[in-house]
Amino acid sequence: ALLSLAPEGAHVLFGLDANTHREAVPGKSYGAEEYAAALEAAGARTAWPRGSEAAFLTTFTARTCLQAQVQKAVRFADLKQSPLTDRHPKDHVVLRANEGLEVVSCERDNTGEGRFEPDQMLPTTTF
């Protein structure tokens, strides 16, 4: 619907926290590949290379025992394998398909220094 509201000839480009997951869980979460297919059907696309959206993780967070919903807390030793850890490809740059825009580069940064550390949780003391 958003794409249809843009004036004819206008480039549409926006960032979106799509809350997508690596894999879909029917009735619970939307998978990155399904999201990319839905965008395609709507005449749009994500800036991540098609077919690899699930590989571009943009979140790595988990609840601590000091936060609300303590039953969802994750021990530090279990961060990488716990199903309660939020480590998914949720963030996307979305643009209209077939309007001549070429994505030259789409990068992630979780350091504040222009680089991505796959095992770095967010937030950090510096970012």
Characterization of the model:
With 127 residues, the chain is mostly loops. Helices cover 11% and strands 11% of the residues. It is built from two helices and three strands, in the order H-E-H-E-E. It has helices at residues 2-5, 32-41; strands at residues 13-17, 44-46, 91-96. It has a three-stranded antiparallel β-sheet, covered by helices on one side.
> Judging from the principal axes of the Cα atoms, what is the shape?
globular
Going across the major beta sheet, what is the strand order? Answer: 1-3-2
Share of residues in helices: 10-25%
Structural class of the helices, strands and pairings? little secondary structure
Written as H for each helix and E for each strand, in order along the chain, the element string is: HEHEE
Total count of helical runs of at least 4 residues: 2
Mean pLDDT: 87
Question: What is the multimeric organization of the chains shown?
Answer: single chain
What fraction strand? 5-15%
Annotation, overall tally of beta strands? 3
Beginning-to-end CA distance, first to last residue: 34 Å
- What low-confidence regions span 5 or more consecutive residues with pLDDT below 50? none
Integer-rounded radius of gyration: 17 Å
* Biggest sheet features: 3 strands, antiparallel
Topology:
Blueprint: H1 2-5, E1 13-17, H2 32-41, E2 44-46, E3 91-96
Antiparallel strand pairs: 1-3, 2-3
